[in-house]
Amino acid sequence: MQITSAVTNWLWVGFFGMLVGTALIYLIGSKLKQSQKYHVYLAMIITSIATIAYYAMANNQGIFIVSGKEVFAARYIDWVLTTPLLLLSLLLIAFPAGKDAAKLREKVGLFATVIFADIVMIVTGLFANLSSNTNNQRFWFVLSFIAFLVVIWQMYGPVREQAKNLGAGANKFFTNMLTYLLVLWFIYPIVWLLGTSGYDKISLGAEVSIYAVLDLCAKAVFGIFLVLYMKDVKNVE
Length: 237
Ligand code: RET
What we know:
Layout lengths: L4 H25 L7 H22 L4 E4 L2 E4 H22 L4 H32 L3 H30 L4 H27 L9 H27 L7
Antiparallel strand pairs: 1-2
The site of retinal has 15 residues, from α4, α5, α6 and α7.
């Protein structure tokens, strides 16, 4: 198969359709009760993922030729994320919420938003890295960075608000862990810009070693802090 203009046109149809669909879900969903809003978030997340995937495919990104056939990698990234979320929406309908569960479900919307923004950050970062054209690369980088800001904004806003209900010790523990995470995570896009993926200002050796140290701090040291202090803090499970 060839990527003809008809193929590209259909990919743009997919893109605009998903974009309009997302807006409609938002508008219609704004009438739902707060306790049901998580359905709106889930549905919007699903169509937003597809919007991003279609945009990439319409720009000929993430399409690899394997054994003479086009493989649309963006489709698989889309499906691997959206199919579990579609099943989750149905599962949540099938298991009706009791009184306490209803509160928990409101949080599903918040959890899903943070995780969705995080996934968008990584996937669009990959697309930026795969871009051969500077405009495309900038577009994906900015989108990735916006998603990063959404993660930070949610974590410092509603999630931290929630943590204030914990005891003083637990709240402090949460804030310390969050600040540690924020400082480390901010370095990733800086290295990305300075390294081979961006302006090539540092050597590959420097890039790889900084990422390695960052990964160790963000995963191993983070985990160690977590288990070290968790046992001393009350009201955290
Ligand atoms: C990219 C480039 C595009 C802009 C942004 C980025 C952020 C990446 C982050 C990665 C965090 C990785 C962690 C790994 C754990 O081991 C994709 C580099 C904002 C924040 C914590």
